[in-house]
Amino acid sequence: MPWIQLKLNTTGAQAEAIGDALVESGAVSVTFQDTHDVPVFEPLPGETRLWGDTDVIGLYDAETDMKQVVAMLEYNPLLGLGFIHKIEQLEDKDWEREWMDNFHPMRFGERLWICPSWRDVPDANAVNVMLDPGLAFGTGTHPTTALCLQWLDGLDLEGKTVIDFGCGSGILAIAALKLGAAKAIGIDIDPQAIQASRDNAQRNQVSERLELYLSKDQPENLKADVVVANILAGPLRELAPIIGQLPKAHGHLGLSGVLATQAEGVAEAYQALFQLDPVAEKEEWCRITGIRK
């Protein structure tokens, strides 16, 4: 069915209250989007992560009288008369089908392909990960995931144990297993991510080698030869005392979900424990890697 979208700009401090006002005015959903197109992946438990310059987008049924909606919103003290906004008619599409049609097999590094589960693999002799992300983050299309996949493809994972911290769809853990790892452990705060990872592991016939835990349930004293965490700069800094203890001595660490401008701050949180490599960058995003001292 067609929809109408109302979009306005505000600050992070006011965004949630304005989002509530849109819902009260009849919006069926509200989305917060960074004005500068900086995506959000993994908020901390109980946290709604916002930005300094935030677009608040309300989605309304196509039959909604938007003049009446705007008039109602003008009474809100955070908006007022004549508040700046944009109203758009959204094309009626099968959005799930459109997304599926535009998700193509992608190659990372020398050996690895990420392939949508509903498409044929381009190279039957390659290392192919069949993926359906479901509601979880991680398809390989974002630069941070691509950076991690390329890094994993370049490691000797034969017989190793890998921890994927913030596993999302399971793409990194499953790729590691297909690249030769003996065992992978996926950890996430979101039950939907655990389910998506489990489904994708079964799809790739590696479920018997993948352990999955909600972060609150992860075993104590976990250790691995390789640890990868593709989350956000803030959590990477805050969780450095936890993530930094996961690699074994001389084990590998890979961090992403970090803008190039944030790399120095994240690296500082890990440099005492790790011999860090030069930062790798892709489209303003970066990957920080190192070896446990």
UniProtKB/TrEMBL annotation:
Subcellular location(s) per record: Cytoplasm
Superkingdom, taxonomy of origin: Bacteria
Any one of the GO BP annotations: methylation
This protein's GO CC annotations: cytosol; ribosome
Amino acids binding S-adenosyl-L-methionine: 145, 166, 188, 230
Catalytic activity field: L-lysyl-[protein] + 3 S-adenosyl-L-methionine = N(6),N(6),N(6)-trimethyl-L-lysyl-[protein] + 3 S-adenosyl-L-homocysteine + 3 H(+)
GO molecular function term, any single one: protein-lysine N-methyltransferase activity
Keywords: Cytoplasm, Methyltransferase, Ribonucleoprotein, Ribosomal protein, S-adenosyl-L-methionine, Transferase
CDD domains registered for this protein in UniProt: AdoMet_MTases
Listed Pfam families: PrmA
Record's keyword annotation contains Transcription: no
Major location (coarse): cytoplasm
EC number: 2.1.1.-
Alphabetized NCBIfam families for the sequence: prmA
Described function: Methylates ribosomal protein L11.
The family this protein is said to belong to: Belongs to the methyltransferase superfamily. PrmA family.
Record's protein name: Ribosomal protein L11 methyltransferase
